[in-house]
Amino acid sequence: MSRADHKRLFLPGPVEVRQEILHAQTKPMIGHRMPEFAALFARLQDKLKQSFFTESRVYISGSSGSGLWEGAIRCGIRDEGRVLHLTGGAFSERWAQVSRANGKQVDCIQVDWGRAHTPDMVAEALDKQAYDAVCVVHNETSTGVTNPIEAIGAVVSRYPDTLFFVDTVSGFLGTELRVDDWGIDIALTSSQKAFALPPGVAFAAVSDRLLDRAKSIENRGYYFDFLTLEKSLQKNNTPSTPPIALMFAADAQLDAILEEGMEARWSRHRQMRDATHKWALSRGFGLYAQDGYRSDTVTTVANTRGMDVAAMDEFMQRECGIAMDKGYGVIKGQTFRLPHMGDVDMKMLTEVLGGLDAFLESAQ
């Protein structure tokens, strides 16, 4: 595919997808009630459980990760219960809005954008009020902050009736996550970030504790009802028609991911993060996220030079054939994001950073 036909994506989702993975979607179609589909589902289940580091199940949903936000809330928060959201970025705040839209009682621990949540904040809140669940975004894509999920999970585990819900949409497969060891009751993600698949399919590792809670809740909704998903999962199937082509792609991509090895994959992302930080600081930019909590998968660069991010994107598309991010939400333009995730390697990162250097030189 030539540069004229395709702008390569250097975005924090959807990310660039390898040709081999795109091609996997072109396999002859199968019916989702055929034995061939059950075999595909079973293969995926085994690989996903390895990737999430869980002995429980992983649901597959034809949706974005946002749908699984709703599923977690509908299946995990009782009518009389409350939910605690840790908010400090566009997506953590949106998840809290989803809980409110579903009629739940919501409290928030709000931090400034670019800051992380600490275990002490969570402990203080849980000492004062009983909650059905604590909801946290592992890797806040808008700010480039990675929250200390393991340490927060250790706090939540001291409260047996409180579940631990984690959005790892831009963390999963790019930075360390161990669902069972960290006491996570749902870890939800989607396909278009560090998984490096096309968008349209989402995944959730779900604990027995969350299923037990769901049994006590009458109105769990329909499409994202985990008990319905569980009934079908026991037959290696889904309740409704799934995105079969995307599941073919996920099957192929998980083979490559597991061959690379999870530790090696996490290490590759850290190396790219470090190279990106070095570039940004040496060019007179800042790093938006709090020191010590900076993401392995996306660097939110503080635009301290006042660079014209729209002109930067236009230049990169025209001269390099690469589409760039221009920041997100209330910090758009004040920041821009460099996503070193998925199948990005040091070669592509070096190409992108070289293009940005050429833009900076041209803009002087």
Feature tags:
364 residues; alpha/beta; 3-stranded antiparallel beta sheet; 14 strands; 41% helix
Q: What are the SSEs and their pairings?
A:
Elements: E1 8-10, H1 19-24, H2 35-52, E2 57-61, H3 65-76, E3 82-87, H4 90-101, E4 105-110, H5 119-128, E5 133-137, E6 139-140, E7 145-146, H6 149-156, E8 163-167, E9 186-190, E10 202-206, H7 208-215, H8 226-233, H9 244-260, H10 262-282, E11 286-287, E12 298-302, H11 309-320, E13 322-324, E14 335-339, H12 346-362
Parallel strand pairs: 1-13, 3-4, 3-5, 5-8, 8-9
Antiparallel strand pairs: 2-10, 6-7, 9-10, 11-12, 12-14
The low-confidence parts are none
Shape: globular
- End-to-end Cα distance: 33 Å
> What structural class results from the helix and strand content?
alpha/beta
- What is the number of helices? 12
Largest beta-sheet details? 7 strands, mixed
The radius of gyration over CA amounts to 20 Å
Would you list the SSEs in sequence order as H and E? Answer: EHHEHEHEHEEEHEEEHHHHEEHEEH
Give the averaged pLDDT, no decimals. 97
Tally of DSSP β-strands: 14
Question: Helical residue percent?
Answer: 40-55%
Strand content: 15-25%
Instruction: Provide the spatial order of strands within the biggest beta sheet.
Output: 2-10-9-8-5-3-4
Describe the fold and architecture:
The protein is of the alpha/beta class. The chain has 12 helices and 14 strands. It has helices at 19-24, 35-52, 65-76, 90-101, 119-128, 149-156, 208-215, 226-233, 244-260, 262-282, 309-320, 346-362, and strands at residues 8-10, 57-61, 82-87, 105-110, 133-137, 139-140, 145-146, 163-167, 186-190, 202-206, 286-287, 298-302, 322-324, 335-339. The chain has a 7-stranded mixed β-sheet, sandwiched between helices. A 3-stranded antiparallel β-sheet has the order 11-12-14, with helices on one face. A two-stranded parallel sheet has the order 1-13. A hairpin with a 4-residue loop joins strand 6 and strand 7. The longest helix is centred in the C-terminal third of the chain and has 21 residues, at 262-282. The protein starts with 7 loop residues before the first strand and ends with a helix. 46% of the residues are buried. The model has no long low-confidence stretch (mean pLDDT 97).
